[in-house]
């Protein structure tokens, strides 16, 4: 096992299956945020933000050769009464409020989408049912942009569900008004050949609460870039993630929480399980506490469970602190192989091996499954875990 607990900036712990706690160079991108694709050089894989990504498997999303083709994806929105759903052009003033693209693929997605989807929950509206955004791949190449905006003191749950086959780059913005509460569940359950690259920007207002749960299973390559900034003091962000990386899959989650406002909180917990030859998971967790962000309270953690030989994990928590006037800040990363002692303990009590493995993996993910808060998604997730484990035994 490779483990780094509250590691000082610049320390490195390396093992055969994990790399943890490097310096915070990943916080600094090779080019400043921009809507213009030309502002970003074509990546070659040596750049900090691209060094783990197999560029050849991006199917041209990174170098401009992937042009929109076929039916791409079909996006549908099922929203409760009172929620406004609009299709707008690129000149709509509500686009870009949560942040600009930070890499070439995100900039390409912004410049190439035809119509953006804007979902608005009016101020002081408390939704009794989730907003469901379905992104169904139709086999082509597609770019998209989605904005979810909550007015002051509004409360909502939004489920963004990806499935099917596509080469897809999509940016999502979450804009929270003062005192608003938003829970987002983003599910990546693509077919085995799909490619998905996405940037998720959240702007958290004064005393607002943002909770993100990212669930990644399918796809040949999935690379997601969740980012959080604050628009006023008292904001809180919780970023949870679950991923199950199977044979040959590349799943990459690159997070940045930018504490740019005083007296805000953040908590990041991502967990992954891996099995099969050339299964590769990458988790980059960047937390930046700027000089003005006094009173910050933040923590980030990544845990990985390697179920079989041949899988690889790269786990890199980064913490950069520019002020000493904070409540707390820390990070942790650990990757370990399946615990044979736990398996033996259960089997010694008459539980068959497959059922014992299932119980251990379910227990590993349990605290994060409970964060979802949407019953049908939780049931689907647990069924998917069982399906993945059955495939490994077969």
Automatic annotation (TrEMBL):
Signal sequence span is: none
Q: Which PANTHER family match?
A: PROTEIN ABCI7, CHLOROPLASTIC
- Residue ranges of the SUF system FeS cluster assembly SufBD core domain? 137-364
Q: Which family does it belong to?
A: Belongs to the iron-sulfur cluster assembly SufBD family.
Transmembrane ranges?
Answer: none
The protein in question is named: Fe-S cluster assembly protein SufD
* The species this protein was found in: Streptomyces fragilis
Q: What is the lineage of its organism?
A: Bacteria, Bacillati, Actinomycetota, Actinomycetes, Kitasatosporales
Origin superkingdom: Bacteria
């Amino acid at each position: 096992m490779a483990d780094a607990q509250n590691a000082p900036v610049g320390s490195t712990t390396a093992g055969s299956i994990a790399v943890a706690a490097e310096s915070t160079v990943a916080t600094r991108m090779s080019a400043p945020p921009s809507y213009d694709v030309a502002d970003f050089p074509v990546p070659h894989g040596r750049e900090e933000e691209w060094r783990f990504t197999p560029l050849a498997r991006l199917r041209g999303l990174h170098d401009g050769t992937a042009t929109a083709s076929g039916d791409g994806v079909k996006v549908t929105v099922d929203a409760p009464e009172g929620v406004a759903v609009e299709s707008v052009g690129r000149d709509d003033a509500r686009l870009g409020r949560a942040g600009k693209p930070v890499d070439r693929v995100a900039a390409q997605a912004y410049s190439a989408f035809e119509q953006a989807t804007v979902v608005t929950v009016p101020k002081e509206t408390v939704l009794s049912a989730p907003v469901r955004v379905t992104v169904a791949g139709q086999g082509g190449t597609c770019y998209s942009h989605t904005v979810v905006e909550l007015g002051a003191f509004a409360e909502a749950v939004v489920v963004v569900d990806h499935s099917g086959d596509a080469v897809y780059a999509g940016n999502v913005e979450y804009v929270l008004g003062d005192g608003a509460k938003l829970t987002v569940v983003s599910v990546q359950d693509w077919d085995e050949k799909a490619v998905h690259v996405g940037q998720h920007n959240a702007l958290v207002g004064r005393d607002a609460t943002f909770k993100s749960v990212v669930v990644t299973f399918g796809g040949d390559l999935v690379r997601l870039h969740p980012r959080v900034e604050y628009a006023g003091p008292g904001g809180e962000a919780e970023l949870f993630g679950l991923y199950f990386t199977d044979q040959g899959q590349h799943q990459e989650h690159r997070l940045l929480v930018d504490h740019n406002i005083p007296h805000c909180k953040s908590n990041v917990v991502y967990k992954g399980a891996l099995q099969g030859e050339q299964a590769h998971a990458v988790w980059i967790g960047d937390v930046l506490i700027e000089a003005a962000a006094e009173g910050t309270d933040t923590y980030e953690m990544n845990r990985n469970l390697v179920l079989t030989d041949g899988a690889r994990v790269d786990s890199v928590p980064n913490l950069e602190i520019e002020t000493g006037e904070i409540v707390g800040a820390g990070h942790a990363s650990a990757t370990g192989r399946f615990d044979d002692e736990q398996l033996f303990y259960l089997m010694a009590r008459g539980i068959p091996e497959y059922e014992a493995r299932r119980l251990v993996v379910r227990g590993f993910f349990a605290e994060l499954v409970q964060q979802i808060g949407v019953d049908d998604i939780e049931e689907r997730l647990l069924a998917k875990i069982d399906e993945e484990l059955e495939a490994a035994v077969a």
